[in-house]
Write a structure and sequence with these properties.
The chain is 44% helix and 22% strand. The chain is an alpha/beta fold and 363 residues long. The protein folds into two domains: 177 residues, P-loop containing nucleotide triphosphate hydrolases (Rossmann fold, 3-Layer(aba) Sandwich), CATH 3.40.50; 172 residues, Up-down Bundle (Glutathione S-transferase Yfyf (Class Pi), Chain A, domain 2), CATH 1.20.1050.90. The structure holds adenosine-5'-triphosphate. The site of adenosine-5'-triphosphate has 18 residues, from helix 1. GO terms for molecular function: ATP binding; single-stranded DNA binding.
Length: 363
């Protein structure tokens, strides 16, 4: 799958800009703040229907405008696919594929597989468990529509159950029958999510470990473990056992929305005990494992976005990563960097076609 061209209107700092891309490697170079990351984000937007960096749609619209349009033309399975995302202030965002509007955003997820590696990934280590759940969900959802649909339904029922618990507390009342209906629905959607996450980790963790070893060349033992109370008992029983607590807290304290991933290095949490370099390598290995996994599941080479990659790694490691992707029967690569010579030096080494886009400040 190849992104052939991209047009931006009023997307962040771009008022109007069109790019024609190389089928292999595309590099965006220029000073800080010229919009390199914004271009990668626009490409991300076309795959996921949202920004990787700023989930507030209205803030992705250029400050001086009241709408944006992102227009991408792809080659996929020897067909041309035109994907257009537009947003107007105060209105719902629209995604169209070949001029046909999607009724549900979820139907588009997975159609244009993509992996991004960015300095913002550090949130996966430093922030709360929701970031790590989003990561697993993002990987699985790109290849499993059922999973995504269960997730959306689960989250809807969860809000309803939480609202009911609040209502009980506010009105000093309780109705087990209504609560049981929500419990059943949480189990219907939540239990398969747990099973899928568990199965996913069995396949994903070894791929991750291989990637870590390949990038670091070090003897450190890394592990990635799925933590969930559902390992101990089915969700149905967890909900029953937590009833008194949930009523007191006025929200649902157990379920797959509390799951987490433990990131460890030599048996200790990466967050507390990993060096800066180890943390960066850990994150890159996670993302490259994501690339491998999605590729295997979807049969399509995902687009790979490398944002500010030298922020994370030295030149040797970057060369290594680009080569890894290369030997993996190459997809299409988009790189952003402040130093044109550095990027070109690395890219030249792998003897693929490439295009360098020099960006200046936009008017
Ligand atoms: N909604 C918006 N309207 C106008 N400009 C915006 C908007 N959102 C972000 N920007 C501008 O985009 C610029 C940042 O772009 P971006 O993060 O892509 O830069 P970059 O070239 O990747 O820089 P760096 O090398 O520092 O990472 C900033 O100047 C910021 O003010």
């Amino acid at each position: 799958m190849i992104l052939k061209s991209l047009s931006l209107i009023n997307y962040k700092n771009f008022t109007s800009k069109t790019f024609e891309f190389d089928a292999k490697i595309n590099c965006f170079v220029g000073n800080n703040g010229v919009g390199k990351t914004n271009i990668l984000d626009a490409i991300y937007h076309l795959s996921f229907g949202k920004s990787y960096f700023n989930p507030v749609t209205s803030q992705n619209i250029n400050h001086n405008a009241d709408f944006f349009v992102i227009d991408g033309i792809y080659d996929k399975s020897e067909r041309e696919e035109k994907v257009v995302i537009s947003a107007k202030k105060g209105q719902k965002k629209v995604i169209k594929r070949n001029a046909k509007m999607y009724e549900r955003f979820a139907d588009h997820i997975g159609f244009l597989p993509l992996v991004i590696i960015s300095p913002a990934d550090r949130d996966l280590i430093t922030e709360g468990s929701d970031m790590r759940r989003k990561f697993i969900d993002g990987v699985i959802s790109q290849s499993d529509k059922n999973y995504l649909s269960n997730l959306l339904s689960y989250s809807k029922v969860l809000s309803q159950r939480n609202a009911l618990l609040k209502y009980f507390a506010a009105n000093n009342t309780f109705d087990q029958d209504t609560l049981s209906v929500y419990n059943e629905q949480l189990v219907t959607y939540g239990q398969p999510i747990f099973e899928k996450r568990k199965e996913f980790l069995v396949h994903f963790a070894p791929i991750f470990q291989e990637q870590y070893k390949a990038i670091s060349g070090e003897a450190e033992q890394v592990s990635l473990t799925y933590q969930s109370a559902l390992h101990d008992m089915p969700l149905e029983h967890l909900l029953t056992n937590a009833l008194a607590k949930d009523r007191m807290l006025q929200y649902t304290s157990v379920g797959i929305h509390k799951d987490d991933l433990a990131f460890e290095i030599n048996g200790y949490p990466v967050k507390k005990f990993g060096s800066q370099g180890q943390q960066k390598t850990y994150l890159i290995a996670l993302k490259l494992a994501q690339f491998d996994f999605i590729k295997k599941e979807s049969g399509v080479n995902p687009i790979l976005l490398l944002d500010d990659i030298f922020d994370k790694l030295d030149e040797n490691r970057v060369t290594h990563i680009i080569q890894l992707v290369n030997t993996n029967s190459f997809g299409q690569l988009f790189i952003s960097d402040t130093h044109p010579e550095r990027t070109e030096g690395v890219v030249k080494k792998i003897h693929q076609s490439y295009e360098l886009f020099h960006l200046g400040h936009q008017e």
